[in-house]
Specification:
By secondary structure, the chain is of the alpha/beta class. It has helices at 20-29, 76-79, 84-100, 122-134, 144-148, 152-160, 176-189, 206-209, 252-257, 286-299, 317-330, 344-347, 354-368; strands at 5-13, 34-36, 49-51, 112-117, 167-170, 195-202, 243-251, 264-273, 308-310, 339-341, 400-407, 411-418.
């Protein structure tokens, strides 16, 4: 039998909370993290709402002006190379390591690896390039590249924690941290690593959110209570968010040996491409359908065994519809009716962060014995007929939870998590 990957630690910096207990309460009570915003100081912009990350402030590109909640420790020397989402990531990883009972000194012996996911920092990259143009290349921030490009998380965190195992960054848009988690599972199953740290993070800045407006992907609804409503007939786009989530994934044998609490088992994953469009999901959900089937096959389970699906559903008209058709094909057509919800109704869409965040939410559902409800769903799209979309959270413990992610170019990734015996 190959090693079984298990989750022993979680860390959260999200719009619905910065520690496990707060996130858990908000998921159970369906309390969203949205607030009114005004990007670029421009009241004429149609995007009025975001999933804000409370207590953190990045008012300028200068790290000396940045602030964060007092409970987190951020070394000033490290800060020079971080983007805003790097600060989020460091704070989330500190939580995850503490929850898993690991000290930083235990991470550098080569048995622990680090896989990260982010799109980089448009906020810092834009400033760096503007400065370079203004000086005609004669002056620039020596940490400008390190802090702003897509690998900034793995650069900084691997060096800070002295990681000598596998280190890699993943860039597949909204499937990025799901890819990071899937390949982390394989590192453990193949015996290459005993432990993997998986981190997904994104800035929450005008540059990282408003750029999606030209794609007509963002909601123009100014009401925080209804702007993000996956599967609802009146949905009109996603609500942006930022933050970070970190997961500690270990070989189950190692976790048991050191007395760590196993919160969830990672029993399968799969991926498939749409082969359709650079930006729009396959209209019938072909790639996601195949990714779900491959995940179930990898785990050796049937569709009827799945108790909960955390859908990718971002609240866009086309994306939600294609996922519903994929769910019908995999589940409804065979008589299976898992509970289905999208927690993006509460958090917003975290882009590269989404997959790791929602895998962590599935872990909470399994370990704490509940199913998050389908928040803000008032009028389900008729295409959802036959899906079980609970309007409130349910105090029932699923045995298996499926987590779906989809990204630009038709990248579809799924994970199957199991409640520990």
């Amino acid at each position: 039998m190959p090693p079984l990957p298990v989750i022993t630690g979680l860390g959260f910096i999200t719009s619905i909370g910065h520690e496990r207990s707060t996130v858990l309460r908000h998921l159970r009570e369906l309390q969203h993290g949205f607030e009114p915003v005004e990007f670029f100081g421009n009241s004429n912009l149609p995007v009025k709402v975001a999933g804000t990350v409370k207590g953190f402030s990045f008012p300028t590109p200068n790290w000396r002006d940045w602030t964060w909640p007092d409970q987190f420790s951020v070394d000033r020397e490290l800060l020079r190379g971080l983007a805003p989402h790097g600060v989020y990531a460091l704070c989330a990883l500190q939580q995850a390591l503490a929850e898993a009972g690991l000290a930083p000194a235990e991470l550098g012996d080569g048995t622990t690896g680090l896989f990260c996911a982010s799109a980089g920092s448009p906020f810092l990259l834009g400033n760096f390039l503007t400065q370079m143009h203004a000086t005609r290349g004669e002056r620039g921030n020596p940490m400008g590249i390190i802090s702003s490009i897509a690998g900034t998380l793995n650069f900084n965190l691997a060096a800070h924690y002295k990681i000598t195992g596998a280190v890699c960054g993943f860039v597949s848009a909204c499937a990025s941290s799901s890819h990071a988690l899937g390949y982390a599972m394989d590192e453990i199953r193949l015996g290459r690593q005993q432990r993997m740290l998986v981190v997904g993070a994104e800035d929450l800045t005008a540059e990282s959110v408003v750029s999606f407006s030209s794609l007509r992907a963002l909601s123009h609804n100014p009401d925080p209570a209804t702007a993000s409503r996956p599967f609802d007939r009146r949905r009109d786009g996603f609500v942006g968010t930022g933050g970070a989530v970190a997961l500690v994934v270990e070989d189950a044998t190692l976790a048991r040996k050191r007395g760590a609490r196993i919160q969830a088992e990672l029993v399968g994953w799969g991926q498939a491409g749409d082969g359709h469009s650079v930006a729009i999901s396959h209209p019938e959900g072909a790639g996601l359908r195949e990714a779900m089937r491959r995940t179930l096959a990898d785990a050796g389970v049937n569709a009827a065994d799945v108790g909960y699906v955390n859908a990718h559903a971002t609240s866009t008209p086309a994306g939600d519809r294609s996922e519903v058709l994929a769910l019908h094909s995999v589940f409804t057509s065979s008589g299976a009716r898992p509970r289905v919800s999208s927690t993006k109704a509460l958090t917003g869409h975290g882009l590269s962060l989404a997959g790791a965040m929602e895998a962590a939410f599935c872990t909470l559902a399994l370990s704490e014995g509940f199913i998050p409800g389908a928040a803000h769903l008032e009028e389900p799209d008729p295409v959802c007929d036959g899906l079980d979309l609970p309007p409130t959270s349910l105090e029932e413990a699923p045995r298996l939870a499926l987590n779906n992610s989809s990204g630009f170019g038709g990248s579809n990734v799924c994970h199957l998590l199991r409640r520990p015996a």
